[in-house]
Amino acid sequence: MTYIAKPKFHHPKLATNKLGFTHRDYEGAVSTLCAGCGHDSISAAIIEACFELDLAPHRVAKLSGIGCSSKTPTYFLGQSHGFNSVHGRMPAVLTGANLANRDLIYFGVSGDGDSASIGLGQFAHSIRRSVNMVYIVENNGVYGLTKGQFSATADKGSQSRRGVANMDEPIDLATMAILLGAGFVARGFSGDKTQLVPLIKAAIEHKGAAFLDVISPCVAFNNHPGSTKSYEYVREHNEAVNSLDFMVPREPIVADYAPGSVEQVTQHDGSVINLRKLAGEYDLHDRSAAIRYISEGEKAGEVVTGLLYLDPEAVDLHERLGTVDVALNALGDAELVPGAETLARFNRSLR
User: Fold this and answer.
1) In 3-state terms, the chain is what percent helix, strand and coil (to 5)?
2) Residue 234: left if φ>0, alpha if ψ -120 to 50, beta else—which one?
3) N or C terminus: fewer CB in 10 A for the chain?
4) How far apart are the first and last CA of the chain?
5) What is the pLDDT of residue 39?
6) For residue 27, what pLDDT is reported?
7) CB-neighbour burial class of residue 285 (10 A; exposed 0-12, middle 13-18, buried 19+)
8) The domain containing residue 120 runs over which residues?
9) pLDDT at 130
10) How many domains are there within the chain?
11) C-alpha triplet 139, 148, 144: angle, nearest 5°
12) Of 135, 204, 203, 133, which Cα lies nearest the Cα of 173?
């Protein structure tokens, strides 16, 4: 992976938060993703959310797996803790880290391949165990690192860039998260920063598993009519000369529309996606209604965005297990080695 550091110079008039940090203090390395990639917009939204919440970067731990999405933690919160795990195994690593040190704020950053395919079981169990984390899936419906095959979230009937239709039913991760017991479930669009930043802030403040499914257009491999999750990113000369891999830059697609309304977002290839933003009267505490609303939106050809479900009485894994109130690395010998009698008493309690 190419790593390009940013210069440390800060203009003296840059805006600061209550900690005295500027936006630059929440940035990471220069992104090596395709210009116009929706993932970079998500990174920018995370930076903005952490800046506005006055979070100290060293209090954050960011974990990821494999894929374009899993590269993005390199591009935000460069002064935080980070761990890049193997493909699909990020949730298990995050769970272990969270149990060892409950004092950190955990970001699990994944993609539709990393979470909906090889890591589907890991995703499911981390959600059902209510691990205290912000789990973000940067969802583009394709495998970007392996040149654009359908992912498990690709809509049935959508076409590959070679015109082949996807015949498999899609996995809706937001619906799964609600069914699995996540206390906070939301869906956003990478180009709608006005909506996405507050959703990330709310997810950070939530206790327990907070899941965000963010539709994030892939500018490289869904650049054709028939795609339902991304916009065209023109690749000139690629078919004619295999040794060239040239991409014409595009501006990121943005959207700003009122709650309760439907916004038709025209993509670079001329196709249109319909985004419906939840209205103020939507009951986000009704789990069954949330699942039904998502399904009705899919039937109408709409991508429903906003906070889909919230459990106001959610608890996290530590509360369920009754763990100690401090991080494990802060415990001394007296707590870690209580003696033979204490161990024997504990063993008797399990019989």
Assistant:
1) 30, 20, 50
2) beta
3) C
4) 51
5) 92
6) 94
7) exposed
8) 23-349
9) 95
10) 1
11) 55
12) 135
Output the pLDDT for position 246.
33
CA gap 319, 87 in Å, rounded: 29
- In whole angstroms, give the CA distance from residue 248 to residue 296: 37
Cα separation values, 184 from 51, 134, 209, Å: 22, 9, 7
Both tokens of residue 70?
Answer: 């899993």
pLDDT value at position 223?
46
Asked if the structure places residue 158 within a domain, the reply is yes
- Report whether 8 contacts 62 (CB < 8 A): no
For residue 196, tell me if it sits in a domain: yes
Query: From residue 278, how far is each of 66, 159, 262, 307, 350 by CA, in Å?
Result: 32, 28, 9, 8, 48
Q: What's the alpha-carbon Rg for the chain, to the nearest Å?
A: 21
Give the CATH number, domain containing residue 344.
Answer: 3.40.50.970
* Amino acid sitting at position 152: A
CA within 13 Å, CB half, 35: 8
Sign of CA dihedral 227, 230, 234, 239: negative
* Two structure tokens written together for 61: 């731990």
User: What tokens does 203 get?
Assistant: 């997810």
pLDDT recorded at residue 89: 94
| Residue 13: Cβ within 10 Å count | 7
Identify residue 267 by its one-letter amino acid code.
Answer: Q
- Residue 178 domain flag: yes
Residue 65, helix vs strand vs coil: coil
**pLDDT of the residue at 228:** 53
**DSSP at 329:** G
Task: Give every residue of the chain whose pLDDT is below 70, as ranges.
Answer: 1-10, 146, 148, 159, 161, 221-251, 253, 255-257, 260, 262, 264-274, 279
Chain position carrying tokens 């959207």: 255
**Within-domain flag for 176:** yes
> Are 248 and 187 within 8 A, CB to CB?
no
Could you give the CA distance from residue 139 to residue 307 in angstroms, rounded to a whole number?
Answer: 17
